[in-house]
Design a protein that fits this description.
The structure is a homodimer of 632-residue chains. By secondary structure, chain A is α/β, with parallel strands linked by helices. Among the domains of chain A are: 11-105, Ubiquitin-like (UB roll); 127-196, Ubiquitin-like (UB roll) (Roll), CATH 3.10.20; 204-353, Domain of unknown function (DUF4445) (Nucleotidyltransferase, domain 5), CATH 3.30.420.480; 399-507, no CATH class. In chain A, the strands form seven sheets. The first copy, chain A, has a six-stranded mixed sheet, sandwiched between helices. A six-stranded mixed sheet of chain A has the order 28-27-18-19-20-29, sandwiched between helices. A five-stranded mixed sheet of chain A has the order 2-1-5-3-4. In chain A, a hairpin with a 3-residue loop joins β1 (11-17) and β2. In chain A, α16 (570-580) crosses α17. Chains A and B meet through α4, α5 and β16 of A and α4, α5 and β16 of B.
């Protein structure tokens, strides 16, 4: 059902006390909306319809707000009105104004655990439930079912929209429920469920991170903001290729492949929904909202959008901004009229996961410059703070996921995850996942291996084996030099685990790609390492990485180790924040709009930078002061 | 994609010159919207997005509008700005203000032919097309497809929503079209089509009147407002009963019946769409908007909403207000992303057709009181003017459609439509449809017959045959008295055509039902016949009725014949107005909200009034001064 056409207007400044936060907004905007934009949490349980009366504020300046409305008088006493109390949802900003938010109107904030960081955000989900008892129709009151329900809500509820399928069910639901129902309202603008009796204690949401390898689901109680359950599953698209490019290629051949991949993504998401809900004894129908993050390719495929132009120069996505969809439109198994909010992307290879990373880590509001790396087959690199966000994507390849490394494996049980090499005896000590017998090298071990070999001068700064070294661990097999890490009598596979000259080359290519991204962004930002206040490593791999080894091989810029933070799945945390808070969605949208994208492949410095970064740690050792003693 | 939650605010008065029309609106509203509300036509080809620059107005008061926006400067010269020119879509009303609308910004008005009345309305459809040439993506410009298109529109287009299916097709459409496309925008808020090349000359809409018996479709060119073609078909639901109640009853037995009836309604509408388009060589895809009117039962069934509570006391509808739907949601064969606008209803038996009647006849804005009758199996009676609209529904039954009348038929070829009886010789003269041999009596003839028999004192004011009358035309057949209208040697059926005592009783019941509605509404409005300035007869039957005969038998109140207007299918005209003008939709909504509904069956005066109205013309002859000489 229609709303008026959009229009634009003048601006005014609102100051929120006692914090003193200020924001410039278009006149005509409600204080509630203005507060949300300013990141100031004001309570509201009706989505701004003047129904709940919880958004009480005090006007501190005489003018600047629209006059008192009739519906406000239902919630305010004469004493309140004299004292300047207003409802934030009913007060429009007409001119510069200062308001105070009393304690009782402040939104409780929820702690979101982003590993290594901590964010407090206001609980302000898009979904609210309202329990209403509706008078039966009688001959002296023959209002239509829908208008009868809406009249009961009061306030501005006549503007609420409703989907046809709910309208079709409405007469039966109302009568079967004996006119005692609970309405679920989305974003103060649409009725998305009509349920029998009082179900206000059941309001759930799910945040989903669709990764190339894994799909993770976070089930959240939207009445408290608490995390109820987390589950993760392998992305079933994996049968069409481990990496993004091979999946995109498969869709380019025919349209059905795109549909098949899309269906697999939705199936995967549905499996995650069912598992997270089932284990918590919650019905998926009681989840009314889902937020989704993922790289741009996963984002497009999930939405049934052809991703092929992501893989063809100039690599443009089809849509950047966020999208809201009905769950049933995509076949997602939350409440069918529930909403799917897909976060915005930045560019063809900087996706909604990167936006969520920035959101979760708070880079967008940081004073000091941060460098964020989300390492994967494609590594997103972001340099920025509150003033500017510059992004790029590096084709780092799957070496750190164990692919193209002779004994490379994922971080499964028995994977070697840490390695030390004695620089005198060349003896190797290592640590495996779960302490099992070693069966291969995971990404962090590969990085350690290179760093330790470099320190022990087993390899030189070009990554070549030192021919003068004298240890049986360095040997030639079938014309290829390799270093023995674990011999077959100690491994779980009965085979030697080694690192070959070719493996070293793969790691060099991967780390050069990532470092080149960092270096070029820093160059474009005209900064050096010292200007970076924090290096944030996001993603599963980042979590296991040894920061010292990383610096020794030149994977990341040479910053003080204590500046390095590991934040785990920040993309998932960002998706959760967007689920809990409408303001966070607007922030995500603003991040996507503000962020600049740099295409590395066509940067004039790319080739030189990449060639220099192939060295361990780098051809220009001035950039790696801390590694100077180790290398060359 | 979401918009902000609704809020409310202060009000201000806008005066539009040179007409001097004034309206009080909420501050923050754009002048374009305010003009629409005031019924003042301002041109706009972009739906208020600041794109087209056609909505130029001149501010005559210094303050009262929001400050000049950047996008306005794209359309206004320095000279314009000095002279006070603004774009109406970009100027928000902040305080009382007077503006002038120059000639070039005035909407052309279109004449809508409502038979016997004439309405001029401003052409302001919801659908607009914009042709854009979009720059190709290159490595130095990697904006996403959607944002690239929206950026090209400028203005406020970033707020435009788009459906998922269009988004899915967007990359292919853009590239196949060589980035030269036409966007169709609905109500300035949603992209509903993306087409290759320039298709701005093809914008059609269809207005549909779903009657119990017939479905009528009006195909309209929305670029000019001109009627291109009209077609009507029998409502295929007729296989489930001729009247509404039997169709509702069939849905009460099982849900599948409801779905079947709904499907039949949609199929009927689709056949009308295809026929109207085909004969005009227009593709149904090029119709982007459809407006629908119908009685409340047809309205519910078309929307797949259970109509059973319309037939059960207290006869409440499920929804009153208007609805906008995607064509594909209902399976309607206009452009699948196109919009279906279903007009609002008033009550269980006063439907969207009655709202359209009021809209088309202009009763809602009339100074003097009007009495509107839309005669059918259910007859809607409406008394009102600009200050108040009071409605009721009368169970008049199908007598005027020929049902339950021994020789009753519809107004087909050969139906007797006019009758005169010589009061001395009792000879009958008649007129048939198309001058064919008579085959039966249609509704208007039945009314004539009663009036003429009354005048000739063949029957008395109780409807009984006068036993003293001496003519072979009055005879007893099988114990029942009847009057011979046409003998078998002159008819096309080879049988006598007569009017029996039972027929007379049926007509008395029907006319009593209708008159009772009129009488009770007048009583509740505390008015007598003289207060009525106009009696409007709408609907197919009304068109053929002899007003004098109608007054003689007391079917309608006794007003001067020159006050009686026949308006034909006013409901269809109302649907066309809503298709041509967004303002008319708001008016329809306001009519539905304002109109009061009176339940006749439970009115304390109903029984007495009905019993009195069974007399010809009425027990109380003071109400029928003009018939006094005829009756008793």
């Amino acid at each position: 059902m229609s709303t008026s056409a959009p229009t634009a207007g003048a601006t005014a400044t609102v100051v929120f006390q006692p914090d003193g936060k200020r924001i410039s907004v278009k006149t005509g905007l409600s204080l509630l909306e203005a507060a949300k934009k300013a990141g100031v949490g004001i309570r509201s349980e009706c989505g701004g319809l003047g129904i709940c009366g919880k958004c009480r504020i005090v006007a501190l300046t005489k003018s600047g707000l629209s006059p008192l409305m009739e519906i406000e008088k239902e919630h305010l006493t004469k004493h309140d009105m004299k004292a300047g109390y207003r409802l934030a949802c009913c007060s429009r900003v007409m001119d510069d104004v200062t308001v105070s938010i009393p304690e009782e109107s402040r939104l409780e904030t929820r702690k979101i655990l982003v590993k290594g960081l901590e964010k407090h955000i206001s609980l302000d989900p898009t979904v609210h439930k309202i329990h209403v008892t509706v008078p039966h129709p009688v001959i002296s009151d023959v209002r239509a079912d829908l208008e009868r329900v809406l009249d009961q809500l009061g306030g501005l509820s006549a503007q609420l929209e409703i989907d046809l399928n709910l309208l079709q069910q409405l007469p039966r639901t109302l009568r079967e429920a004996g006119w005692d129902i609970t309405l679920t309202i989305w974003n103060g603008q649409r009725i998305i469920a009509v349920e029998s009796g009082n179900t206000t204690n059941r309001v759930y949401g799910i945040a989903v991170d669709i990764g190339t390898s894994k799909i993770i689901g976070y089930l959240i109680d939207l009445t408290t903001g608490k995390l109820v359950n987390v589950e993760s599953l392998e992305n079933p698209q994996i049968i069409h290729g481990e990496d993004i490019i091979s999946r995109i290629s498969s869709t380019m051949r025919n349209q059905e492949k795109l549909e098949e991949l899309g269906k697999l993504a939705v199936e995967g998401v549905n499996r995650v929904i069912h598992e997270t809900c089932e284990k918590a004894s919650i019905k998926p129908r009681d989840a009314y909202e889902m937020t989704v993050v993922g790289n741009t390719a996963m984002h497009h495929i999930f939405l049934g959008i052809q991703p092929k132009y992501l893989a063809l120069s100039p690599y443009v996505p089809v849509i950047r901004r966020s999208i809201n969809l009905r769950a049933k439109e995509l076949g997602v198994d939350i409440n069918p009229t529930g909403n799917i909010h897909v976060l915005p992307v930045i560019a063809g290879f900087v996706g909604a996961d990167a936006v969520a990373d920035v959101l979760a880590t708070g880079i967008y509001e940081a004073e000091g410059l941060c460098l964020l790396l989300d390492i994967g087959t494609n590594t997103e690199v972001i340099v920025g703070n509150k003033d500017d966000i510059l992004t790029c994507s590096c084709a780092s390849g799957p070496a750190f996921e164990g692919v193209h490394i002779k004994h490379g494996i994922k971080a499964v049980s028995g994977a070697i995850e840490r390695i030390r090499i004695d620089p005198r005896s060349y003896e190797v000590t290592y640590k495996t996942v779960n302490g099992k017998k070693p069966i291969g090298l995971c990404g962090s071990a590969v990085v350690d291996a290179l760093a330790e070999m470099l320190k022990a001068q087993i390899i030189d700064w070009r990554g070549k084996f030192n021919e003068k070294i004298d240890t049986p661990r360095v040997r030639r097999v079938k014309g290829l030099t390799e270093f023995l890490i674990a011999s077959k009598d100690e491994t779980g596979t009965g085979e030697d685990i080694t690192m070959t000259q070719e493996d070293i080359r793969e790691v060099q290519l991967a780390k050069a790609a990532i470092y080149t991204g960092c270096a070029i962004l820093m160059k474009r930002k005209k900064i050096v390492e010292d200007a970076i206040e924090k290096v944030v490593l996001a993603g599963a791999f980042g979590n296991y990485l040894n920061p010292v080894s990383s610096k020794i091989i030149g994977l990341i810029p040479d910053v003080s180790t204590k500046k390095i933070k590991f934040v785990g799945n920040a993309a998932g945390s960002g998706a959760r924040m967007a689920l809990l808070s409408r303001g966070m969605r607007e922030t995500a949208q603003a991040i996507s709009r503000r962020a600049r994208y740099l295409e590395l492949a066509t940067d004039p410095d790319f080739k030189t930078e990449f060639a220099s970064a192939m060295y361990l740690p780098h051809r220009n050792l001035n950039r790696f002061q801390s590694a100077k003693s180790v290398s060359k």
